[in-house]
């Protein structure tokens, strides 16, 4: 079986499976219960696998969609669910019918036993035997209830689980099919919320649904029996019950309305949290934590206000359940007495027990059914709306009959940006007219590399069979060989859902390797060369693209125009239109705009492979041809790979922490103290005690009243009974007071408990979010998105919703159990003797159960996270998944994650039922002891005492096991509190503000000094910067170069203190480690490599703290040529952006980042490979604006493309974390042994010569401005401009 699981489950799952297996094998609890249900242990695996392998629900939904299309109607998910499950679920109604019938029969026999005591005759052995028979029937009914109740609940919970799993399967299946337009209408946060909260309603609604018909039926039967017992007075009690029903139904409707509104706020909060976690590095560099804190806090306030209202409704509902039977009995017997009837113990306790039976069903299960159905309808509607979103059109990519592979685009028009042609070929962009036909299998490499949670090998194979020779060839072609050797586990190294153990360059090459290994017919490569340095870029182009893919159709997107000579055809696009198409030679001969982008290099002696590589990116596109020549460069033949990325060192993604043992007292203390002051908590305890005392006293007073009345029944001269009446005003007055106290205390304690616990949830959420914002970046590298989001979605959902309800329910039932036992012992003191062994058995069972239950619940929590992580990861790589036709494989992986979670859930379900059966068995023993013990001691007892003790003992059935199970459920849910509290006390960064504050104008010079700086991302990690010492002068422009992993980004991380550096970094004579992080980070501007926009308005994205005027914002947008684009939006700057700003292109997002830098007006600007992913025109604009707007600033530029930094004042060359060279570019190029010289030469002779000439001109202009050097400049004949400048600005 484990061998089978190894193939079925994703990596990392076997650890959880072994945990489950260990729990089962060590726990006879499970084996015993599973054998009762005829489920051997191994069926845990097979059974849950079947839940996701057999999805009739999907088939019914698909049929419903077709039916609706044919009938021109909207499909109904509810109809599909009913058609799929109604037969199997209807059969379970038989259990409900038998169980509720037994509850109604019990009070009849209770009345017969009490009658025996009312008419007690010690000499009447027949009456005694009859009483024993009644007691036997009573206990048999009790045992039937004990078994049937749990069989019913087991099966309905399994039904709910199947429905939930089917829904999750459908939601994920739909997510993989969403069109781009549909993705704009939903968010990752909303889909996570559907999977985490909405589908859980199916687990709850299946439990209570049958009570919608069982409740009214039972009420009719009870009314008939009460009529026979107390006559017309019963109608008064039933009237109260009927009045309570619409009252509670109204609560249910209000609750569902609030639930719908709450879900909207929850969606928004989780969506924002998803963006915060994804973009945390940028948020920290911009020092925007407070802005996002305010945003989330406001969303949370709106959400919590709705939650508090719905909690108060729930509190009223529970309070009405608590006091309903008391009000009903009070009204009934007040009416009965006022009509002139005489109260008797048998009538009182038969009525009390009958009302007790109907109360549970009518005032708890029936309203719960209404509430859960209302919630389920809301959830079904939300899921249905999601399932009806537009899907991407499925295009057939089968090769034509002649076997020729091709991509054909004809008269294609669509609403597109500059990256849209590739998406059109993929089928992701629907045309407004025209056609795109693709014949052949597609492999796609996305612009932003996508890796999923798993090993490096599984990321490359992507479902394909492992073939060693082919695999090794791909690894070599994609320059990954040395990288994998440096990883601890090689290609079996596990990477996270965001690939946090790999550098950007490594992720790009893994993406490329995945595509190459697929052996497809058509390759769409969206700029895979921009994330790597020049040497590796050339290696990938020659060995991978030119050699390995030489027989394939390849469409290459690139900004590195030196490779265009190899293209068989080039397509020029301008403003979304095709300007011209032709070969490289044809374009050079023509006088069109293309000539300004390329330099004629007649002196180029090195031959690139013959034309054949297709090229496309904004202006370049070509079709396929065959490579006839292979590269012969010996230095690249063996793979000139990047060195190991020491700055992005492999961060081990540890398994999620899972606490062991019982939840400590400290967790409870922190939970309650987060909600209220200890004085309020003491008052709450006293209020609960008072409510229970009033509850018991009311019944005791009724019993006392009946006994007092029976003593007044005297026989006169054998002529019959003469009844003397009691003082009705006195007895009724006390009774009324006790009833009022019960109701008022019940309502007050319910509302106060909810207030305290919801307030606690709010406090803990805010603390957790504050802690997350102050956590170092390393925390986010080590913990995947799903793991963190799970705390904010599922765990906070428990604290908001389920835990307060469960705590209140537990408190109420616990106090009632204590009251029952106290009354029984007070009436028959010797009952305490058998209670001792029963108590010992109970304590043993509870301890035994909780040890298993806690671990199973914790396991269930940790196996849930991968489900969310897989969903989030899949949505990030949606285009890649669809391009490879890997939807089915991803679906199977999702189902495998679900199966693993379902196994843990199934274990929890079975352990709970096992425990409940045994608890009810203990209660049945208690009923037997009380019933037969009363008959044995008949001489010493009166009817009122027996009625009170026995009716209370019967209520213990169900209530006691529910109380204990709720205590376990509280402890299990406290695991969510534990998990939240764990995140409230994370390791923190340095303070945002310190006592030492820099002057407001700091830094006015922008001088940066690195003094023997060492840097590591974690205390146990390797040094990624080693003994770095450098001076960056005021207003100096410094280019930072080095191969991937050299320490370039680590230098920036040290400057921003993303982790604390060793050594000293000075900025304008102030030591950076002596001031607050916000004081430091706000004074430096950064344009990041991957531009990040957040959901919200464009105004908020530019100016989250409202520090600038509208005029300043518009001026900044005009500077970056985005003003017209923003003005065309419906709300201009106040238009809400799509999630992560996905309705803007990468180039536009990068321009927004530039606008942010312009607005901040800081003296120091850091550019982190900001133009790596943008087109030449955007790059030209960005470079131009940087030179204009930041001429008087200190600028640090990290670049892979050397032409962007060749005119810098100085170049800093890093290698393996050390500063190897630091001087002016031209000076470095004079030393042929320098690393910088070698890097330039790797670009080819023509490019190297051009860069050297540019460096020379800049050097002489800066150092010898009086010496004329115009005659040294090479002029482009097409426009008379210096070609070196043209290359610098546009030849990327």
From TrEMBL:
Domain ABC transmembrane type-1 residue range list: 90-374, 682-972
Instruction: Write one Gene Ontology MF term.
Output: ABC-type xenobiotic transporter activity
User: Which chain regions cross the lipid bilayer?
Assistant: 89-111, 131-154, 230-251, 318-339, 345-370, 678-697, 734-758, 827-849, 915-937
Tell me which Gene Ontology terms the entry assigns under biological process.
leukotriene transport; lipid transport
Q: Which domain of life is it from?
A: Eukaryota
Reactions this protein catalyses: 17beta-estradiol 17-O-(beta-D-glucuronate)(in) + ATP + H2O = 17beta-estradiol 17-O-(beta-D-glucuronate)(out) + ADP + phosphate + H(+); dehydroepiandrosterone 3-sulfate(in) + ATP + H2O = dehydroepiandrosterone 3-sulfate(out) + ADP + phosphate + H(+); cholate(in) + glutathione(in) + ATP + H2O = cholate(out) + glutathione(out) + ADP + phosphate + H(+); 3',5'-cyclic AMP(in) + ATP + H2O = 3',5'-cyclic AMP(out) + ADP + phosphate + H(+)
Q: How does it sit in the membrane?
A: Multi-pass membrane protein
Q: What is its EC number?
A: 7.6.2.2, 7.6.2.3
Query: What Pfam families does its record include?
Result: ABC_membrane, ABC_tran
Q: Which coenzyme or cofactor does it need?
A: Mg(2+)
Composition-biased stretches (Low complexity): 624-634
Known partners and oligomeric status? Interacts (via PDZ-binding motif) with SNX27 (via PDZ domain); this interaction accelerates MRP4 internalization.
Name of this protein: Multidrug resistance-associated protein 4
